[in-house]
Amino acid sequence: MPTLMAASSAILAFGTVFLDESLPGTWHRTGWIYGGGPDGARAVLSVIASSMITVAGVVFSITMVTLSLASSQFGPRLLRNFMRDTANQIVLGTFIATFLYCLLVLRTIRGIDEHEFVPHISVTAGVLLGVASLGVLIYFIHHVAVSIQASYIVSTVSHDLRSAIDRLFPDELGHSESAIEANDPAQGGDVANVQATDDSSEPNGQRAYAKESGYLQAIDNDSLFELAREHDLVIKLFCRPGCFFTAGTAIATITPCTRSSDAIANSLSEMFIIGRERTSTQDVEFVVSQLVEVALRALSPGINDPFTAISCIDWLADGLSQLAGRVLPSTRRFDSEGNLRIIADSVTFRGVADIAFNQIRQAGQSHPVISIRLLDAISAIASQAHRAIDIQCLSGHAQLIWQNAWQESLQGADRLALESSYQSVQRAINKGRTQ
Questions:
Q1: Homologous superfamily of the 175-275 domain (CATH)
Q2: 124-157 pLDDT, tens per residue?
Q3: Assuming Cys at both sites, which of 119, 338, 374, 385 could form a disulfide with 324, CB separation 3.0 to 4.6 Å?
């Protein structure tokens, strides 16, 4: 963003100077257009340029302090959210663009009498950019004060979680097994075609290997499915986005071998995007882990901020409630003709719930308020769950939370509040089982 804004300011500078050269020399003596001489124009642009580069340095310093604070208090994995903040990029870009604009216009001013040239429109535009930069600075001070608040950070990550769930579920890598009713024996179809193409059990399938070490950030689903369909293959994936690979590790098996080749295996490897860190592009578990990390740091003895942990639990409950209502993709993906093409390693509700609750339960078992809030969150999620396996998973987590908290020898009102929350969970789970 700062680069684009700087390039735009350069184009604006050449455009306004060209306009100044095209207009007659006396038109500027009316209105708000700058009407001074070359010395005054140089002074105005010099002051604006020097001020902007100074303010840009101050803004950069404030940004670095904010990043250091966020890294120590909320975790280094949240720095990505600050770095991609569009507001911060626009603020830095505005100051840099204004500085570059003034610098480019300044070089066109000539003070020799017979060749005197003052770009009146350009100088006026520079003043306007300086005024706009002042407004951006005021906004930046407010934005930084808001962006380092725990509630704002947690809600921002939770928004990423909801966006990731909307983007990934249901996955569109072919058709799920439930969608092939024509090949479902229960629907009176013929499964011979599916069975004939399910060569995933072949022990000698050709393997594709990771070409570098790192985290699997994304898979080119469309190209992968097209490769399997074009060559009439069944591809079994050993991983999903978020997994870590070392170079040379098998990432998929291609069957049958008679239709595969080294070229196809190499093409398959190119469809796996591997990087140094996890991203939320196709990895919903990574976003959940970010919220869990904030909660764990808040519960650490050095910070001891249960209110932030409660906020994380609330937003985790929101995300899991959304996930519980979605149709999760099948591990077996078929083409439109009912032929098995992909056997994927898909995300499950249990896997996401384990990431969301296990570590917080372990770290917060000595905090009754955390255990109670976890039970309340499970109760809210259970009211949205419609799959028996998901309800069973939530029941197991509720029982673990209740047992761990009970071992802390709670007294009086804490024991009653915990028992009340646990009973609410049981009612929600029993209601879900009867639906």
A1: Pyrimidine nucleoside phosphorylase-like, C-terminal domain (3.90.1170.30)
A2: 889 899 999 999 999 988 988 887 788 888 888 8
A3: 385
